[in-house]
Design brief:
Elements (H helix, E strand, L loop, with lengths): L1 E7 L2 H17 L4 E7 L2 H4 L5 H4 L7 H8 L5 E5 L13 E3 L8 E5 L10 E2 L3 H10 L5 E2 L5 H9 L5 E5 H6 L6 E4 L14 E5 L14 H16 L9 E7 L2 E9 L5 E9 L3 H13 L8
Parallel strand pairs: 1-2, 1-3, 6-7, 6-8
Antiparallel strand pairs: 3-10, 4-10, 5-8, 5-9, 11-12, 12-13
Helix pairs in contact: 8-9
Length: 293
Amino acid sequence: MKIRIGSRDSRLAVIQSELVMEAVRAGNPGVELELVTMKTTGDKILDRTLDKIGGKGLFVRELDAALREGRVDLTVHSCKDLPMEVPEDLPLAAFPRREDPRDALVLRRGAEKMEGPIGCSSLRRKLQLQALFPGVEVLPVRGNVQTRLQKLDSGQFGALVLAAAGLRRLGLEDRISRYFTVEEILPAAGQGILAVQCRRGFDTALLDCVRDREAALCAQAERSFVRELDGGCSSPVAAHAVVSGDAVTLTGLYVDEAGRTSKGTVSGKADGGEALGRALARELKEGHPCLEK
């Protein structure tokens, strides 16, 4: 039996897909896997920020079509790049173990301190960076990780802020100058988590060896929070969950249309993350941050 795995054609996306494929092979001896890569609309349009061209859905459109048409059987995504609304016919089938969810500061090669603007296309990161470093200039940057690093090292920026998970998976951990704690910069929902998607009705038993309970519970809670706020790539919302035994603690960040920031934390049963995410979102939107309970 041959299973075709669909992936964006960026180096990071391919590495992430290969990580999933290695785990599937280890748990299913004899299964034949084929990697099918493709360039998505979001990968092709690099001269504008995502909120100007249609949001995160541009990174999955071609992959979704390939699933529906039977050209691939599974697709692998960075969970944080997935739209919050998932089509009923293309369910999320598995979440592997989470990588480091934190954001990281990357300096120009040879630099000992930040000199010049910070490159960052996320409004979520921009607002939190400006709170950490008052007066700092934050400019948009597009492209894959390698392209962004080239722009940094050529002098276009003094630093970049990137997801630590991507840098680690690419073997570029040595470029990290500083990890931001989740208290300093709250991550994007699903940051560090991979998601495996399939067609409805596809037998996903071969993914049992890939599924991670904590990653799934965190993704559920974080995505529920953002979904309730109707947050897309242009919305500066953030969410981070931590599972401990049968409990989950979720922290969320919401910025209203006037630029006022609300941040709150709520805890509850781990399998109730969907409801916790919705409740925290409503509390913050109404201007009454939840207290940890």
